[in-house]
## 1
Amino acid sequence: MYASLKSIGAYVPSRILSNADLEKMVDTSDEWIEKRTGIKERRIASAEESTSDLGTKAAEIAIARSGIAKEEIDLIICATLSPDHLCMPSTACIIAAKLGITNVMAYDISAACSGFVYMLSMAKAYIESGMKKKILLVGAEKISSVVDYTDRGTCILFGDGAGAAIIGATDNKNEAIVDVHASADGNYADYLITPGCGSKYPCSQETLDERLNFIKMKGNDVYKVAVKTLTNDVVDILQSNGLEASQVDHFIPHQANFRIIDAVREKLNFPIEKTVLTVEKYGNTSAASIPMAINDAYETGRIHKGDLMLLDTFGGGFTWASALVRFGGN
Ligand code: UT7
């Protein structure tokens, strides 16, 4: 029995934050943002919407497309760095309740932008071991809640959104999750961090005054490690599965910065036509980025049953992960 990605769904809030809007907020320009990142606009959730609302809407679409009844779901995992609540309950528990699913195992994972691919490795293990049968994975972010809109080095990059997938079982190898590699190096923790409001610097007037509750990033250092790691990761997973880049139908990288994606793509000799890009319209949506990109390719008719997708992601931790996945949906 193999694990299979049976369906995909995504949701973005309606409000658009354009580069022109950001020009009015910080010392930046549309030209700089587009040239350095490829981003033109991103979505921002309303004050009434939380991460679980975005995740629930994406999940409803994925469930409907899978053809299964929501009651069949026996595990819900949510990857997010912007949970509804800092400690508890988990956003996965809230999504379960909003979906009307009770009596289900549900928990969050923390792997920043690598969250969705990390979850794929867990789902694969649960299904292949027979422990679980129908798993809902949700990557959801109201990342605008932890972005400092006075910091031009970060606020131009991020956007809100959610993506979800149903993972089930199949006996058909041509519809299976082939392999997942996931790794981390905590020596880089300070490079991409929300320093405050955890146990190290608990929330206080001081942490808030110093804006330590927001994302801090050594952008250029992250950029260099990201390009190298994302490239090595792809070479590694292709080699260990005896595959060539030319056998991959869709390269679906984390949508952090067009320049990063393009550098990796060029190093791997991967054609742009086979590369899925959503960074221009959604920016970096962290744990939602990969499932949102899969969904975009699915909704535009690019992805078909059995197609081989190569996922590649990198984020805070540092964490990174890649996956070879044959699409198992219709
Ligand atoms: O999802 C997790 C992983 N995250 C990432 O992958 C993000 C990785 N990093 C990046 O995408 C890029 O490093 C950035 C887009 C954040 C920055 O681009 P960069 O080409 O690395 O620029 P830089 O940080 O080296 O800064 C170059 C200049 C600096 O000015 P000086 O010192 O040369 O005068 C910055 O102050 O650009 C300046 N700058 C800006 N100028 C206009 C930085 N941000 C902005 C801005 N608008 N928004």
## 2
Amino acid sequence: MPTRYDIVGGRPLRGTLRVSGAKNAALKMIVAALIADGVTALRNVPRITDVEITLKLCEELGARYAWRDETTVEIDARRVNNPVIPLKYSGSTRTPILFVSPLLHRLGRAELTTIGGCSIGPRPINYHIAGLRQLGVVVEEVSRAAYRFHADQLQGNIITLEYPSVGATENLLMAAVGARGRTVIRNAAIEPEILNLAGMLQAMGAVVYQDVNRAWIVEGASRFRAVEYDVMDDRIEAASFAACAVATGGEVFVQGAIQRDMVTFLDWLRKVGGEFDIRPDGIRFYRHGKLRPVNLETDVHPGFMTDWQPPFVALLTQAEGISVVHETVYESRFGYVEALVSMGARIQLTNDCLGSRECRFTNKNYLHSALISGPTPLQGGELHIPDLRAGFAYVMAALLATGESRIYGTEFVQRGYADLIGKLRAIGAEIIETPAETVEPQ
Ligand code: EPZ
């Protein structure tokens, strides 16, 4: 049911909250559960729409699932029997392409009808397709974004990715664990969420490890056992709340913020003037004095995550001077900037690569660099969320703004942030969610 958030901002956020399990690890681990012919239990799974959609997709393929408690889900993959990843649910998420590898292991074939996800760029799947072909999978393109896959036995190979894509690396890891012989994936992604998935695959019986220079090495196996496994805490959520604490001049203890997974974020937060104390169970975020501008580029891990970028830009609207942010992962991840400008932010976008180096979008017509002049007071307004992380930037801008904001499109935020309202209230935010009946027509 569509809802809106009403937020009264302008006050420092103070208190303690606990982040949930990482969406971008949990989704892949749910998919990986289908590789084992048994009942997998995943702990610390966030209760968000993307997880529900992925579980429903599992069900459509013949699996069953049940929540054992609030954050532990059991996936019974013994009856996986349908190779067709259905159109239903698929249009809203990137996960369908990842089901291909488990289905190939279990059934020898898979059919993908379409693929969705946030509108932050074209997001093709060519690396997935090319890599699977190199592992001996026959891939037939039925129509745009619809494919048929077939393989009696996958065969290990040496694959070099054109770009360290997170999804392609995960897909190929899940394919390679069931391939005959050794697979090397070069120029691969090495995000902590992928390590979490690789750890689960290892627990299931695979030989899988990371080598130097962004390589993954996998030695295929033929039998996998169902396991009980923990999803890591969400470092995107942790960074989002950290940015809120520092931007509003408050002090928030984020339980589940793990230094090891957030080193780059913490460095940049400190450069801006944010402070933090590392504790065994989380990190306390605050600031002393004014915020400073920075020149920052997003990148694959261990660089500054693209998913940290929108809340960080909202933070930079409060820094004294001109900041530069060069987005190098997605072509179109500044869609939310217009709304921030309407609230009083001074942000200019350009097609140029404003960082220290060129990126894949050089000389293409993408507004992928931002100049942010601050500090600018923000005024509450009416906002319509275009995608998940942009949604958090809106919520954050509303928390910074004087006056009241009304935010529509909350379903985007609910895809990735579990109990956002509860967590924000725990740190003193004035936020209410209004049901659909009272949402005004746009
Ligand atoms: C994952 O998306 C995350 N999603 C994204 O988080 C995250 O922004 C992204 O990785 C980068 O860290 C999930 O884990 C569910 P990619 P993914 O393949 O795997 C291009 C969020 O807000 N590319 O690393 O889809 C692609 O277009 C979401 O939580 C190809 O060209 O990202 C993009 O420009 C949003 N061809 C770049 O690579 C391909 O075949 C990185 O994409 C695959 C990707």
